[in-house]
Every structure is written in structure tokens, then in C-alpha cells.
Specification:
Length: 431
């Protein structure tokens, strides 16, 4: 029987071999398939968004120059000017002309700038450009907050540094012209297509019977344990998500990834109780060998079965994790299919998500020689029950957000305390 990726490639090749289309249709990676499926299952059809927020002194940003810079950035990168579509039952990206909106949302009377930005993101039209910019004035601080927002199906964590760097570079070109040389656009289109096809070839090769059997055995005990969303859980009609954050000292290169997984187990135990096996997802991977470092969505979501029983053996966690990484290229949807075929009741839902970043990999956004200060806008919708983000560098920045319609604030804060306590000794002993 053909694998999921093999079936997809066969359908895509039949579609493009017909040769009766005037537009350019590109295949999608396994990671993009997952995001498009999640979007289709969401009652409101909302996509997963990746926003970055930067505060600049008021008057720094010329909005027309910013609009032209964003337009040139999108023109140069295929993923930033393409739209997801389903053609003859086949998910694809349809390449379009760059059309980046740079908007100044109307401020909400009596509300903070963060409220205005949350409302702007909540009104995101999934059919529009995958890159959009919003500029909101903060009168109290005499700053402008610039939101650079991307559809997750168009970018992954490895793309963000390049987007920030190239947006600043395009702004430095000191022109309001938005045109890009056709040769530059065509070359990037060819590189993007080649990279996606290489990625799909790698995913096709990773969908082996051995890998399917491995994941079926590894994840068979999973059951999603988060309670069902209940809007009445949100206290006082407040924001839809909660957040907590702290900073920890870093030594000797930060905390090894298995230590972060075990810390998330501690948080899950505080949230869902002991002696469970909950699905914890984390992004992993990169561009395939020999491919150009194009902007796009290539990182697979790998599932870790987080056992909330007694404190785990760190060496056992590390050994199991290394075994997982040997099969980490198998696409998420193929993993779910293999697990369900083995008789598991798990449907692919995640109780938690862990992301890790290196603060040396993403430069600050600089416009007109002014370095923007990256800020957070809390209260935005969270796709899963809880998500942990760890930024490692000169210090460890630890952040957790949760869906308040799923988890109450008291339980979430207890989970964050457990997470922090689990990482505090690790931040001193990491080697």
C-alpha cells in the first residue's frame, strides 16, 4: 500500500501533468498538510498565526516605506505570496502576486494597544496574504507597536530570522518602489519548488513499515486528557488565554532537550494528574540536504508520550528521545494513521506543545537605524491546552501560555511553578 506522502505526490503529479492551468501550483510539505488540516477542522476556519511584535519610538516608521519593503520581501519569497488551495481534492499552494497589507487598526476607545492588536489578529481572513503588518500607536509610552504576522503554513521557526533581517534590509533601501527583478523572483520560485520536492522525497523515504511500527508501539498508550473547552471557564469575560513567564540562569550551553521534555512532564502532572501518558508535541527538523535555505514551513511535529507518573530517569528519557529522532521525518499525519491502525483511540490531539529557540539566531528588527524592542501581546487564542516556549542564550527565558476555556488559571500557575522548579536545578547542572 502506498504511503500517505506517496499518494499525495501521485495526486500532485497527475494534477500538474494535465497542463491546463495558467497559474502556478506548488506541492505542500507534511508540515503544511498538518496546518491546513487543523484549519479545516476548526469551526471558524482560523489559521495558526506566528506574530512578532516590536516597539519603536513614535515617528520612527514611515508606513509607505514599510509597505514597499514588505511588498519586496513577499515578492522575493514564494511562500510569502502563495495561497493554500485544494484543487481536485489535492492540497496545494497557488502562487499569486505579492499583496501585503500594512494596516493601522482603529484604536478601541478606552482599551490598551494590545486589545487593538488582538482584535486585528482575530479578524484575520484565511484567504488573504500569508504576511501582514499592523501598526498601533501606544500613546502612554509614546511608541508604535509593529506586528509582523505570518500564517504558520508559510513559515517555520527557522524562517523568522531571515524574514526579520530581510524586512529591515528592504526598509534600508530607502525607496517606496515595490518592484523586484523578475529573474530574482523566478530563481527563488525554482529554489522553493526544489526544496519542497526534496522535503517530500525525504518524508516519503521516512514512511517505512519499520517507522510505522515504531510509532504505533511508542504512542499506542496515548489519550488526550485535557478537558473539553468551556467558554464559561474564562473568568469575567477576559482574554482567551493566560500567560506566565520567568528567567533562569543559563550555564554551559543551556538545558538539554530531554531535560525540557521531563520538565513538561512535571507541568502535565500538575494539570492532568499522575499515571497518565499525554501527547506532547514539539517541532523538529529542517531543510533537506542540498536544498536552498528558502522561507517556508518544513519543521515536522514530533509527538512525545509524556508519562506523568513518578519522576523519570533522565538517561531513559534521553535514550528514548534519540530513538524518536531516528524516525522524526515521518510526517505527523502518517504517524497518527499508524497509531490509530494499531488500535489506539488517540485522534492526533495534543495536550501540550514545546518550542525551543536560540536568541542568537534571530536578529532584532531594525528600521531606519532604530532597533525595535521585541514585546509580547498576551491573551491571544491558543490552539492547544498549553504551550511552553524556551529561549536559550545568556539566560533562559521560560514562558507558558494556556487556553483559559480549557484550563483554569490556578491550575495553570501550579503547572508553571512545577515546570520552573524542574528546570531550576537543570539550569545549574547542564553540561
Amino acid at each position: 500500500m502506498l504511503s500517505i506522502t506517496s499518494q499525495y505526490l501521485a495526486r500532485y503529479r497527475r494534477l500538474t501533468a494535465a497542463g491546463d492551468r495558467s497559474d502556478v501550483l506548488l506541492p505542500v510539505t507534511g508540515a503544511q498538510r498538518r496546518f491546513l488540516l487543523v484549519r479545516s477542522l476548526d469551526p471558524s476556519g482560523r489559521p495558526d498565526l506566528v506574530p512578532m511584535f516590536f516597539a519603536f519610538p513614535y515617528g520612527t516608521i514611515d508606513i509607505e516605506r514599510l509597505r514597499a519593503a514588505a511588498h519586496r520581501l513577499a515578492a522575493r519569497h514564494t511562500a510569502l505570496r502563495s495561497r493554500p488551495a485544494v484543487v481536485r481534492g489535492t492540497p496545494v499552494l497557488r502562487v499569486a502576486d505579492p499583496d501585503v497589507a500594512v494596516a493601522r487598526p482603529a484604536p478601541m476607545p478606552g482599551r490598551r494597544p494590545a486589545d487593538t492588536l488582538r482584535r486585528a489578529l482575530a479578524s484575520w481572513d484565511a484567504q488573504g496574504s500569508p504576511l501582514r503588518l499592523f501598526l498601533v500607536h501606544d500613546e502612554e509610552r509614546e511608541e508604535d507597536i509593529l506586528a509582523v504576522v505570518l500564517d504558520h503554513a508559510a513559515c517555520d521557526g527557522q524562517s523568522l530570522a531571515r524574514i526579520v533581517d530581510e524586512l529591515g534590509a528592504a526598509y534600508r533601501e530607502e525607496t517606496t518602489a515595490s518592484r523586484v527583478a523578475p529573474g530574482e523572483t523566478d530563481a527563488e520560485l525554482a529554489a522553493y519548488r526544489d526544496t519542497v520536492l526534496r522535503q517530500l522525497a525525504a518524508e516519503e523515504g521516512a514512511e517505512t513499515p519499520e517507522a510505522a511500527a515504531y510509532w504505533a508501539d511508542r504512542l499506542r498508550p496515548l489519550q488526550a486528557h485535557a478537558p473539553a473547552p468551556r467558554p464559561e471557564r474564562v473568568p469575567g469575560g477576559g482574554s482567551s488565554s493566560g500567560a506566565a513567564q520567568t528567567r533562569l540562569p543559563a550555564h554551559h550551553g543551556g538545558i538539554p532537550f530531554p531535560g525540557l521534555l521531563d520538565a513538561c512532564r512535571s507541568a502535565a502532572r500538575a494539570l492532568y494528574g499522575p499515571d497518565l501518558v499525554i501527547p506532547l508535541g514539539y517541532p523538529w527538523g529542517g531543510r533537506p540536504p542540498g536544498a536552498e535555505p528558502v522561507i517556508g514551513c518544513f519543521l515536522n511535529t514530533v509527538v512525545f508520550p509524556a508519562d506523568t507518573g513518578p519522576a523519570p530517569d533522565p538517561e531513559a528519557t534521553a535514550d528514548a528521545w534519540w530513538d524518536d529522532l531516528d524516525r522524526a521525518d515521518m510526517p505527523f499525519d502518517a504517524v497518527v494513521t499508524a497509531v490509530r491502525a494499531a488500535g489506539s483511540g488517540w485522534t492526533g490531539g495534543l495536550d501540550g506543545l514545546l518550542t525551543v529557540d536560540d536568541d542568537s539566531r534571530r536578529p532584532p528588527l531594525t528600521l531606519a537605524g532604530v532597533e525595535g524592542r521585541e514585546v509580547h501581546v498576551d491573551g491571544r487564542p491558543v490552539r492547544g491546552p498549553f504551550a511552553v516556549s524556551v529561549t536559550q542564550g545568556a539566560e533562559i527565558r521560560l514562558r507558558m501560555v494556556w487556553d483559559r476555556a480549557v484550563l483554569d488559571d490556578d491550575a495553570a500557575h501550579r503547572a508553571f511553578d512545577a515546570l520552573t522548579q524542574a528546570l531550576r536545578p537543570a539550569s545549574h547542572t547542564a553540561v
